[in-house]
Amino acid sequence: MNKIVNEMPAGTVVTPSRQLNHNGIGAPVRRREDPRLLTGKGRFADNITMTRQLRGYVLRSPVAHAKIKRIDVSPALDVPGLVAILTGEDYAADSWGDIPCVSIPPNITGGGYHATPFPPLATDRVLAVGTGVAFIVAETLAAAIDVAERIEVEYDELPVVPTLEAALADNAPLVWPQAKGNRCFTHELGDAAAADAAFERAEHVVRARIRNQRVAGNPMEPRTCIGAWDPGDMRWQLTSSTANPHRIRLILADQILGVPAHRVHVVAGDVGGGFGTKGGIYPEEILVLWAAQRTGRPVKWVSDRSEAFLSDFNGRDQIADAEFAFNKDGTVLGARIVVNHNLGCQLGPSTAHPPLVGTRMLSGVYAIPAMHVTVNGIFTNSRTLTTYRGAGRPEATLVVERMMDLAAEELGLAPDEIRRRNFIRPNQMPYTTCIGETYDCGEFEAIMDEALRLADWEDFAARRADSEARGRLRGRGLAVYIEVCATISERMEVRFDSAGGVTILAGTFSYGQGHETSFVQMAHEWLGVPIEKIRLLQGDTDKIATGRGSFGSRSMTVGGSALKQACESVIDKGTRLAAIMLEVDPVEIVFESGLYLWKAGDQRSVTIDEVAKASFAWKGVTTYASGALKSIPADLWSGLEGIGHFSANPQNYPNGCYIAEVEVEPETGQVHLVGVTAVDDVGNVVNPLLLEGQIMGAIAQAAGQALKEKVVHDETGQLLTGAYTDYAMPQAGDFPRFKLGLRSVPTATNPLGVKGGAEAGTVGLPPAIVSAVVDALRPYGVRDLQMPLTPMSVWEAMNPEGEEE
């Protein structure tokens, strides 16, 4: 029902220019993995049962901050089926390591940061509700739960700061005594003196506090892991629902176990979603390995949904105090922003990534001459923060776009007009922002214009009148976003087998993105091999030499570029062999659509399939069309394969415009999302069907955060949103049809011209929804609102007198 609408001005690049009657790059090929997944033939971590497998269960703290005075396991020792009760003291005695933070760069300003010990089980102190204090291993899950209920833990409760507001208050209790003011780190960007000078000459200043609430990732598949120990090989094996098996192996080997990486085998099969929350190592992945070695049997742990709310790392959670300086004509002169970002109680692997990367994007798509940004990482007695779809860029976009809308209202300008006056222009590219980010390309005003046209912006008054006739308030909002995508390097390998089949060994990892389709399309495009003869292999650290996984919309850019290089290596190697087979000089060979052709002669050719089979010739000889038996050089008769590498330096910058329309019920405050329009620039498109799915999924998550989702703790740190009865998630009926368009400006930062496309909606849509609701409530004097825009919060904004009563 929802579909991509491609109605672009002449000359706009949306997909490769040829007709989409093929299965290569640009074709809307249906996902090859779906038949397996939709018919129950997927292989997820919980589908796996090992011989003599035990079940693990984590006993978790019911209080948010306390000293552990005593753990008495004796009342549980006679439970039938109990195998082991393991505590933090046992873990420390075995000298295994702590979970590291690997997301704080060495060049952070403000004097470094406060590191936190993060063992998988607490020893002397618990820091958040849900902290693990014991790991029970039993023959069955029921027995393990029975044991956990009998263990007696005595807590000496301590003062609690469960939220940013509490942690930032004067004389607030400290989560870590050495972290004064509960600050883990302070980092600055931009030029404070230049920003101050801009405010001195400003004719208008806009100030606001903008809250981005904490959210839970809630992937469809809860986290699951199985640990095994092989005393013969002296190796550990972890089967996990992780989204980054190679990263987990590296952390386990280097930080936890202190062993060579080849002694750790990590396997991830099908994974039911992750959205960043499954990208780092969790305590339970360590516990099952440790327990497996201790007991001599495999140990499996499976989270249920309520436990996931307690134990999964969370996303977002930021307060930004922003002020923007303008001339009276709406031209922005400068900005000063102080960001306080909730890190939770302990630093996980990716905890600092959202605040540090997100603040790089606080100048948005605007030519702001001067800016100073301070970002503070703040400890609270809440679950550890991690990346969540967009990871900092949604937070930054909300700040910038809300400030532009607030300024437009105060200066009497239309929301599109104030943006026109401040956009970075295409002729200014490459453009380095005042906080040091260099955009290589972008057509921001043209994209906004296309979105306005697609949304029928000019006829909004008629739609508003229709809503009013039905007793509803109607509003609209727009946001223009830019985000930074793709990071670090990637390795991809391509191998032909002796029967002409092709295997892609991917360093990336797909947990819903559709790599079994998109990467196969790429290899089909470049090698000319039918897609049914190509398969993707991923997720096994014994089979894939190395990899970085998938996050930050990097797979098509970094993985795809590395795959292209691997295919080119295959073609180059095959050219030498084809030249022998055709009895011509290699320089006279051209490769086109799976054929090696003699470009100078009698149209002699050989297929890449034939070349691949010849490369497996017995003892390096093969028979040619002439019947001659000829020798093949040793380096060409060991198979046809290629390895590619690519480093994302510089990164790329997807951008776009999102427009939301809402109706509000004045009696209840209920918000109905009645229109979503988006035009995105993601560079060249590999598969428009998969891209459409990614954009729609991101829109759903964005609307969920804007209108419904929020992790809530009470003043004692108790989690009040520990199940779907309390934590509201979006449903299919919450959404209208989407109007989606592309205006793609290929980037030169990678050989494919692609930009990230997986996170666009989560970045661009939330501020548009907030602005739309504010617009609808303007008759009630409402100027600003904070997410989520629940019926209660909207009704209270409309009825401040009722709120006081």
Helix content: 25-40%
Major sheet description: 7 strands, mixed
Return Rg in Å: 28 Å
Average per-residue pLDDT, rounded, comes to: 93
**Number of strand elements:** 31
CATH architecture of the domain at 3-9 and 440-485 and 652-804: 2-Layer Sandwich
Overall structural class, as computed from helix and strand content, comes to: alpha+beta
Instruction: Measure the end-to-end span.
Output: 46 Å
CATH class division of the domain at 3-9 and 440-485 and 652-804: Alpha Beta
Strand content: 15-25%
CATH homologous superfamily label of the domain at 3-9 and 440-485 and 652-804: Aldehyde oxidase/xanthine dehydrogenase, molybdopterin binding domain
With strands numbered from the N-terminus, the spatial order across the biggest sheet is 4-6-2-13-10-11-12
The low-confidence parts are 1-21
Note down, in words, how this protein is organized.
This protein is of the alpha+beta class and 805 residues long. Among the domains are: 3-9 and 440-485 and 652-804, Aldehyde oxidase/xanthine dehydrogenase, molybdopterin binding domain (Aldehyde Oxidoreductase, domain 4, 2-Layer Sandwich); 487-647, 2-Layer Sandwich (Aldehyde Oxidoreductase, domain 4), CATH 3.30.365. The protein is built from 20 helices and 31 strands. It is globular, with a radius of gyration of 28 Å.
